[in-house]
């Protein structure tokens, strides 16, 4: 097995959000009611980046418990 593997990082990772992209995000989430996964693919950003931006724009709460069609992954160690 190779030690270094290619990680699938979104193309727009780390790039700033512009006003047009924020407007698209609002339309996709509120009006079209797309899933977080669908929106992340359209924006070439991670699901967490989409959720964080929705929170920043006031479309979801800071607990991330009211996000339509998405739940926070459980990263706890089950062992």
Please specify the SSE layout and strand pairing.
Blueprint: H1 19-31, H2 36-43, H3 47-56
Helix pairs in contact: 2-3
Question: How would you characterize the overall build of this protein?
Answer:
With 79 residues, this protein is mainly α. It contains three helices and no strands. α2 crosses α3. The radius of gyration is 14 Å and the shape is globular.
Q: What is the helical fraction, as a range of percent?
A: 25-40%
Q: Strand tally, please? A: 0
Order of helices and strands: HHH
Poorly predicted tracts of residues: 1-5
Largest sheet entry: none
- What is the straight-line distance between the termini? 25 Å
Q: What does the average pLDDT come to?
A: 85
Q: Which class of secondary structure composition applies to the elements?
A: mainly alpha
Report the β-strand fraction as a percent range.
under 5%
**Gross geometry:** globular
Number of DSSP helical runs: 3
Radius of gyration: 14 Å
Summarize the structure in short.
The protein has 79 residues and is an all-alpha fold. It contains three helices and no strands.
Keywords:
3 helices, mainly alpha, 79 residues, 39% helix
């Amino acid at each position: 097995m190779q030690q270094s593997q290619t990680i699938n990082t979104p193309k727009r990772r780390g790039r700033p959000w512009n006003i047009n992209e924020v407007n698209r995000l609002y339309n996709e989430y509120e009006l079209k009611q797309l899933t977080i996964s669908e929106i992340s693919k359209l924006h070439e950003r991670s699901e967490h980046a989409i959720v964080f931006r929705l929170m920043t724009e006031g479309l979801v709460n800071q607990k991330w418990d009211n996000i339509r069609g998405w739940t926070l992954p459980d990263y706890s160690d089950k062992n």
